[in-house]
Amino acid sequence: MMDNNIILEPRTLDILLVSIPRLSVEVPPLSIAQLKPSLAKAGFKSQCLDLNIELYHEFTFEEWLEIDNYFQTDLRYTGNDTSGVQREINFEAMHENKKQGLQVFEKYMDFLDRWVDIMLSKRPTWIGVSVFSVNSVLPSIDLCSVIRKKSPNTKIMLGGMGVSAFGVATRPNFGEYMRSVGLADEYISGEGENAIVKLLKENRSIQVNPQIDDLNSLPFPDYGDFDFERYPSQNNLIYTTGSRGCVRACTFCDINNLWKKFRYRSGENIADEMLEAYKKYGTKEFYFTDSLINGNVKEFIRLCEMLVQYKKEGKLPKETSFGGQWICRPINQFGEDYYKIASEAGLYNLSIGMESASDEVLESMKKGVTKKDYDFQMEMMLKYGIRGNFLMIIGYPTETREDFKKTLDMFTEYKKYSDAGVIWGVNLGKTLVVLPGAPLGENPDHFGIDFDERGNWVNKDTGLTYNERVRRRIQAQRHIEDLGYVVKSTVTTINSLFEIVKAGGYDSIE
Fold first, then answer.
1. What are phi and psi of 10, to 5 degrees?
2. pTM score of the predicted model
């Protein structure tokens, strides 16, 4: 049932910042917590509301799983996996079909109805909806539809990566679609801290926002509106951001198309934010949202030095830990001394973009590392007690059967790290998608990419049809599960794969 303690007395707000599903229920949302202090600095009154965690507490776990499945509408896969050909999709019909299949739809809409009443009781001039990903599309439409029905004059703005990362129903992005159907007044693409202030001042949004170069100038996130007891972490886990962009230019990734320049905060600045979060919220565990937390090695090591110092001085508890997305670096760039101080600082929980164990594939991906570098990294992680989750790509365009076998052999070789708890999970994904802004999407011929009649990419030289990619993906899962690894997002991913195969006309994958 709803916790009345979190409902504040009605008051006038310049903007109510709402985070919607689908997000992790482990952590309060950083996106709106980051915006609130920037708004306050400019003199605007705002409040944060995490509708994602309220949904989680409102329903039984089985009901929540059903609703969670309803949210998962990855339009990139529903259409095809290429940047060049777009299969026709009746988006509205697809949405309606998903509604009809949701057994708790009435209860879900009643939940939205009651929460919109609460939101409107705060009398906001604007309601800002944070759209995290493609899996936030349907809840965004559902929520904004209720807001429009109940209060047509309340202005709605959308922000977040999910607003501009993909198109819907012939529109170039989701924000344009929502404006075209009258469910949003404005949307913000890109970084929001300065853009949202400009929106409230000028009553209009600017779609091309200059990137913020000095990240140290941004105020620390304000988590004061969130009740940490509603989140399962015992250490009051929060997200933080140390950098934006990436130092790599991997061929499969579009991050450099989204963030033109890699920017980073100083190690001291990040450490001070962590210290403030511990003082205010009792936070002892942090997870970085960066594309890679060791993008700037100098500042990463400085952060570790500061955290070690704060622990020695008693300012932070010894058990303070942190993690995030990580790139393996060549041995000469990140030696044993760095792993040692990182461990002392509390580095513990990593998501590592391994992708493949084939040096040839890694070179084609422009990863900048070899299998030998991976081997050294794993030995250091074992020695210093740092655990990590592997992020893999099965079915890269240049991946031959021999390359694929090398990846399977790596998991056999690395079983000792899994048994020791150093590898705590593996995410195999849904096979590679050719993203529009990635080098693969910009220059597909260079990588041997062609397209079949359904718009799915193929590579005749390596024998990679869509069918073969899915076959390898399923074979990889069976192999590593037999070895005792934990596979992440198993049910969701496999179900999606088989739905895709069925939609593509393939009868079975063996």
1. -55, 135
2. 0.86
Q: In sequence order, which residues have a C-beta less than 8 Å from that of residue 278 and are 6 or more positions away?
A: 284, 315, 316, 317, 320
Evaluate whether 163 touches 175 at the Cβ level (below 8 Å): yes
Hey, is 368 helix, strand or coil? coil
Secondary structure of residue 492 in the 3-state scheme = helix
Report how far residue 105's alpha carbon sits from residue 59's, in angstroms, rounded to the nearest whole number.
Answer: 12
Residue spans of alpha helices (H) in 127-264: 137-150, 161-164, 174-180, 193-202, 255-258
Angle between helices 137-150 and 91-101 (to 10 degrees): 90
Residues 317 and 350: their CA atoms lie apart, in Å, by: 21
DSSP string, 20-71: -SSS-SSS--HHHHHHHHHHHHTT--EEEEEHHHHHHHHS-HHHHHHHHHHH
CA-closest candidate to residue 86, choices 172, 180, 177: 172
Report the C-alpha gap between 247 and 328 in whole angstroms: 12
Structural Rg of the chain based on CA atoms = 23
Q: How far is CA 465 from CA 261, 451, 454, 461, in A?
A: 35, 9, 12, 10
Question: What pLDDT digit, counting tens, does each position of 221-230 carry?
Answer: 999 999 999 9
Give tens-digit pLDDT for 303-320: 999 999 999 999 999 999
